[in-house]
Specification:
Length: 324
């Protein structure tokens, strides 16, 4: 398998590349792309780690060489969130970057599984979908918004609060909705047992929703969530790899198209297969507090989705003229 990381020299890209070098199956190929000149140095640095994963770095104006033959593409490229900045504020900076990179994916590896990490994910996945549609290669099964960070945070918070001796079993707490602010809805009701009163459940949800801002504030302007994000991306990538190699029964949460009547894109539990999403799974039944949180956030989620779609539809003709 060949895995390409676009934005490999950045705050998420470097630790993600390190984790991939350490954990990908023997014989895998890791292609690292970033416009930053240091990218080749990152690749050389990683190549000194004695694992049977080949690493090569690519830089320059486009990622075509890195993308040729890629099975999985991970995209953490873009600017990070700063104190006082909402994920939605990132849109005007990152939408053009994602639009450009996904055009290269459409041309060089149209059958690859693409996992977007770049924020705001709620809008970036619709941007990518529109670009792939215009290129004539869109397959909803193959495009993911990576929301695993919200899942691992939910697992970690639950463990620290109630089960300090062991983390909950991976995948027990699905997170649905989106990947920004109040669109993040962890379903702690899936744990079973006593959840507390409505206020306690609402506070659990709020803690996960606020977690990214807590990291940004704690880093005092020096960055956003990079290390936990890199771990989450590794976890999701390994699940994609296992499914692509034919392993059955692999379930992850991801922000994908389809499966929800009230929003064209929605983070939900999916069963993975060789071609990406094999089945979107129901997350019912859930607690009334969780359902109310989903109902309340849907208008905002749909607005973020529409922003991404409109961006591409308005700019694509201009983009084609400039690219010529």
């Amino acid at each position: 398998m060949k895995i390409a990381v676009l934005g490999a020299a950045g705050g998420i890209g470097q630790p993600l590349s390190l984790l991939l070098k350490m954990h990908l199956p023997a014989g895998s190929e890791l292609a690292l792309y970033d416009p930053a000149p240091m990218t080749r140095g990152v690749a050389v640095d990683l190549s000194h780690i004695p694992t049977a994963v080949r690493v090569k770095g690519y830089t320059g104006r486009d990622p075509d060489a890195a993308l040729e033959g890629a099975d999985i593409v991970l995209i953490p490229a873009g600017i990070a969130r700063k104190p006082g900045m909402e994920r939605s504020d990132l849109f005007k900076f990152n939408a053009g970057i994602v639009m450009d990179l996904v055009q290269h994916c459409a041309r060089c590896c149209p059958a690859a599984l693409i996992a977007l990490i770049t924020n705001p994910v709620n809008s970036m996945v619709p941007v990518a979908a529109e670009v792939l549609k215009l290129a004539g290669v869109y397959d909803a099964r193959r495009l993911f918004g990576l929301t695993t960070l919200d899942v691992v945070r939910s697992e970690s918070f639950c463990a620290s609060d109630e089960r300090p001796e062991a983390l909950p079993v991976q995948g027990v707490i699905p997170v649905v909705g989106g990947h920004s602010g109040n669109t993040i809805i962890p379903l702690f009701s899936h744990l079973g047992g006593e959840l507390g009163d409505d206020a306690a459940i609402a506070e659990r949800i709020r803690r996960v929703q606020q977690a990214g801002t807590d990291v940004v504030d704690a880093k005092a302007g020096a960055g956003s969530a990079t290390l936990a994000m890199a771990y989450a991306a590794l976890r999701f990538c390994l699940s994609l790899l296992r499914a692509r190699q034919g392993e059955l029964g692999i379930i992850e949460c991801a922000y994908v198209e389809g499966g929800h009547a009230a929003a064209p894109f929605f983070s939900q539990r999916v069963r993975l297969g060789v071609d990406g999403v094999a089945e979107v799974l129901s997350y019912a039944p859930i607690h009334p507090v969780e359902q109310a949180a989903i109902d309340a956030m849907l208008p905002g989620l749909n607005e973020e989705i529409r922003q991404g779609i409109d961006f591409v539809r308005q700019l694509m003709p201009i983009w084609h003229q400039v690219s010529r």
